[in-house]
Amino acid sequence: MKQKIKQRKKEKLSKATGKAFKALFVGEKVFSNSKEAFTLYDTSRFGEPKEGKIYYSIVEAVYLAEKGKIEVYIRTKKLTLNKLMEKAKDTEKNFHTRFAVFRDMRNRGYIVKTALKFGADFRVYDRGVKPGEDHAKWILYPVYESSGLTWHEFAAKNRVAHSTKKNLLIGIVDDEGDVTYYQIAWIRP
């Protein structure tokens, strides 16, 4: 009986999420050219379309693998979620902190994209807003709770957010992986 219930739950989950599609990990990039990748981009804005493929940031790829949306391969070898996370940790500095914030924001319904051109970790779009339809509302910096941040670094982050007409959001990740957010804004006395 328990086996049947587990099987039904699995079937419901696979119907709700669809079948996982294949993505390739080459160098430091993860991409797919499948029809499902383009459909997922159209509905949820995961990845960036370029040259007939959808390219994923490493945090997006891990998140999608964790959700059962993609299966990531290196050549012909499928990576387990743990192996993919190891690769991500090797590829990206501060991966666990960045991933905890990315996962939390996506689970809350926000679209999160990289923000390298702004000198930040992520840009975050308000719920219901897709990139290209409007601008991001926040620049988001993930920070581990025990790491330090000087006043100069803090001021620089705030200045970047202000100059790009976005609000500054700091996501602080604790030892349990929970995230607390602080929004910082300029005021004129």
Present the secondary structure layout:
Blueprint: H1 2-17, E1 21-26, E2 29-32, H2 35-44, E3 48-50, E4 53-56, H3 58-66, E5 70-74, E6 77-78, H4 81-91, H5 95-107, E7 111-114, E8 122-125, E9 138-144, H6 151-163, E10 167-173, E11 179-184
Parallel strand pairs: 1-5, 9-10
Antiparallel strand pairs: 1-2, 2-4, 3-4, 5-6, 7-8, 8-9, 10-11
Helix pairs in contact: 3-4, 3-5
Structure characterization notes:
It contains 6 helices and 11 strands. The chain is of the alpha+beta class. It has 2 domains: 2-91, MutS, DNA mismatch repair protein, domain I (3-Layer(aba) Sandwich), CATH 3.40.1170; 95-184, Trna Endonuclease, Chain: A, domain 1 (3-Layer(aba) Sandwich). The protein has a 6-stranded mixed sheet with strand order 3-4-2-1-5-6. The radius of gyration is 18 Å and the shape is globular.
How is this structure best summarized?
The chain has 189 residues and is α+β, with helices and mostly antiparallel strands. It is built from six helices and eleven strands. The longest helix is centred in the N-terminal third of the chain and has 16 residues.
Keywords:
11 strands, alpha+beta, 189 residues, disordered N terminus, 2 domains, MutS, DNA mismatch repair protein, domain I, Trna Endonuclease, Chain: A, domain 1, globular, 6 helices
Structural class: alpha+beta
Portion of residues in beta strands equals: 25-35%
- What gap, in angstroms, lies between the N and C termini? 67 Å
CATH architecture of the largest domain: 3-Layer(aba) Sandwich
Q: Judging from the principal axes of the Cα atoms, what is the shape?
A: globular
Strand arrangement within the widest β-sheet reads 3-4-2-1-5-6
According to CATH, the fold-level topology of the largest domain is: MutS, DNA mismatch repair protein, domain I
Instruction: Work out the helix count.
Output: 6
Task: Please provide the ordered H/E string of secondary-structure elements.
Answer: HEEHEEHEEHHEEEHEE
